[in-house]
């Protein structure tokens, strides 16, 4: 029950930050940015104290660690793969155009239009 109350408080803090952003429409952009960031940061700190929040932050930490283990392709590999994909798309487009044109020609012949 306490977690649910904390989540509602976090939602209210986010809402207050957004409302403050619009309430201060005549203020400078920096002030509006600080207000909205304060609302989000306070909400994040409240969510951090809940069990679902702790699981969420642990999941995010694991996702970052997993992304660091990924072997990213080099620039050369990326350019080569992009070239192959584009070549395949062009060849496939030409093939589908040829099939479409031949079917159109056959239908025209069957209908006696030529």
Automatic annotation (TrEMBL):
Signal peptide segment: none
UniProtKB keywords: Cell membrane, Membrane, Protein transport, Translocation, Transmembrane, Transmembrane helix, Transport
Parts of the chain that traverse the membrane: 7-24, 30-49, 84-107
GO term, biological process aspect, one: protein targeting
A molecular function (GO) term: protein transmembrane transporter activity
InterPro entries on file: SecE_bac (IPR005807), SecE_sf (IPR038379), Translocase_SecE/Sec61-g (IPR001901)
Chief place of localization: membrane
NCBIfam families: PRK05740.1-1 (NF004371), secE_bact (TIGR00964)
Task of the protein: Essential subunit of the Sec protein translocation channel SecYEG. Clamps together the 2 halves of SecY. May contact the channel plug during translocation.
PANTHER family named in the record: PROTEIN TRANSLOCASE SUBUNIT SECE (PTHR33910:SF1)
Name recorded for this polypeptide: Protein translocase subunit SecE
Species assigned in the record: Candidatus Nitrotoga fabula
Gene assigned in the entry: secE
């Amino acid at each position: 029950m306490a977690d649910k109350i904390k989540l509602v408080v976090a939602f209210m803090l986010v809402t207050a930050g957004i409302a403050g952003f619009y309430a201060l429409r005549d203020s400078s952009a920096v002030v509006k940015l600080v207000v909205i960031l304060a609302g989000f940061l306070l909400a994040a700190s409240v969510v951090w104290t809940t069990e679902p929040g702790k699981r969420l932050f642990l999941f995010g930490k694991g996702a970052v660690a997993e992304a660091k283990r990924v072997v990213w392709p080099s620039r050369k590999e990326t350019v080569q793969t992009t070239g192959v994909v584009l070549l395949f798309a062009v060849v496939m487009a030409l093939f589908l155009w040829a099939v479409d044109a031949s079917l159109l020609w056959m239908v025209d012949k069957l209908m006696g239009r030529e």
